[in-house]
Amino acid sequence: MTIEESKEYIGMWVTQDGYIRHELLPNNRYDEARGNKKSAYQGSYQVTGNHIDYKDDTGFTADGEFRKGILYHAGMVLFKEN
Q1: Which residues make Cβ contacts (< 8 Å) with residue 78, sequence separation at least 6?
Q2: DSSP character at residue 2
Q3: What is the pLDDT along the chain (82 residues), one digit of tens a residue?
Q4: Is there a contact between 20 and 36 (Cβ–Cβ < 8 Å)?
Q5: Residue 54 contacts by C-beta under 8 Å, 6 or more apart in sequence?
Q6: Rounded to 5 degrees, what angle do the CA atoms 44, 74, 82 make?
Q7: pTM (2 decimals)?
Q8: Positive or negative CA dihedral for 52, 19, 74, 1?
Q9: How far apart are CA 24 and CA 31, in angstroms?
């Protein structure tokens, strides 16, 4: 089963040091905090299989991959917060 099918991607994803907090909302929008700066980046995303494509509200695009419950995105490693 892919993460697209399980919808387990929805929720808060956090780097190990807690500096980056990346929330994937159920309406295909995301909100990323960096350090003390809330909503540093916001935009939309699309999950296909175990792949995620981002487009922030400024038009910047990026992507990532879910592997074994970990999100690898733009050189970052994010873990799902429970």
Answers
A1: 13, 14, 15, 20, 22, 70, 71, 72
A2: -
A3: 899 999 999 999 999 999 999 999 999 999 999 999 999 999 999 999 999 999 999 999 999 999 999 999 989 999 999 7
A4: no
A5: 30, 43, 44, 45, 61, 62, 63, 64, 73
A6: 70
A7: 0.93
A8: negative
A9: 7
